[in-house]
Amino acid sequence: MTRIILKNIIPTVVLALSLTSCGEEIHKPIMNKNRTRTENELIQNCKNWYENTKHELFILQFSESTEWDHVFISKGDEGDIAEVPLIIPKGFGLNIENDPTIKYHFRIFFMPQPKNQFEVFTRIIGTRDTTFVNNDSDFNYYHIKPHFNGYEMIVNSKNEPQKFNKYKDGKLEEEISIYLPRNQ
To answer: Which residues does residue 152 pair with via DSSP β-bridges, in sequence order?
Structure first.
């Protein structure tokens, strides 16, 4: 089993980003005739909650845009999850295997909680596949494509890594242990 110590990344990841709303904004509903009414409502609730909630997601300070036009719903055991691709400047990512050919793709996703609240996570996908499309709904929280080779890291809303997995041909090859340094 590979062990990664995120000693140099975590102090940076732990930096909090505070977003504040400035004035009243009119928000265009995110409706899509190819989705069910329930899916459209979930997405609109996610967006409303996101825009009216203070976030500490580290990745958002680097995001050029949140692609709400490309949001999609993943369905599975943990419920329906809204995944939103992010546009991040080229070259931003993790340093895995000291390999500059690994390209990183970022998403945030929302897990519904009671009373129209959400738990929000960052999903980082690293791959050498130059044809990977970040807004492909067939590659989602519940489903890894059969030919995917790369890494997936899930980071919670406190910017703490929750899981870090390596995939080969779409199958989990290795769960990589993450050891966070303790504050002394």
So the answer is: 125, 165
